[in-house]
What does this fold into?
Amino acid sequence: MDGQGLPGGPFEDVAPLTGGTQNTLVRFRRGGRGYVLRRGPRHLRARTNDVMRREARVLAALGGTDVPAPRLIAACPDEDVMGGAVFYLMTPVDGFNGSVTLPDLHRGDASVRREMGLNAARALAALAAVDHEAAGLAGFGRPEGFLERQVRRWTSELESYGVLDGYAGPEIPGVDEVAAWLDAHRPAMWRPGIMHGDYHLANLMYSYGGPEVAAIVDWEMCTIGDPLLDLGWLLATWPDHGGPGAALAGPLGAAGGLPSPDDLVAAYAARPDAVAGRDLSSVTWYAVLACFKLGIVLEGTHARACAGKAPKETGDLLHGITLALLRRARALIAA
It folds into this structure.
């Protein structure tokens, strides 16, 4: 921090931030300024440091935009400073996560909760509107052939679970039918942009004073791809009638009053620079792809649980969500 020219002095008000399941976040103050430090877990995984470098690069690129996200203060790509871990410092977010808690203002007013939902779509549209090349993210991902390789990529992932001892193979009704439909109905037109990669209510912080999105968090899955897949992901995980999104939405989903999926799409579409060159008439395809992809990702934990590499109750829970996601995908196709 001294080498970056940041204010000196003792570290004060040091406290861990909870809510994430993998990476480490610590909030503190120094020299009259607040910070959040983010690094990988105590036991680093093979790609953790690369992910931290990518996150820092994206947050730096978003600094001059209207995307609600933590602002990067400084990054340390050098693994020798913190015992092998890359880390970065970002601005603290003054907000709450609606999947964890709901303040009285938001719990007591359905109109506030409706705006919270619409603002989730608007914040996503702000991200889709960013010119990734102008923001310094040329070469950050592999947008060429992005849509074409999705079904093949995730079908292969599902097949790879078969090497785990104790896993009898995927028992997911409709997965092949959904894969075939996705390949047959792939959109012909799309425009590359920044993708968050895991966009749902649990990865949003809201303002204590109203329905505004204070920050989109957890950027570890970000890449350059088709931003409409983020919109599809929001729709796939949207809480309605106890569907697969209920577990992700927590108190906010349980309180009700959220807008309909059609209202989300309309709020997103209201930003012309987000939808230019993108085919919103294919939004159902993106929602189906999101159900397909997320279901396969969650099935991986179920497969590891069958092999004794993850808790059985967690594996069973996520397998149930996978089945619900594929049911949602088939219902979307049928409709």
About this structure: The chain has two domains: 11-90, 104-334. The CA atoms of residues 40 and 47 lie 10 Å apart. The domain at 11-90 is CATH 3.30.200.20 (Phosphorylase Kinase; domain 1). Residues 283-306 form the longest helix (24 residues).
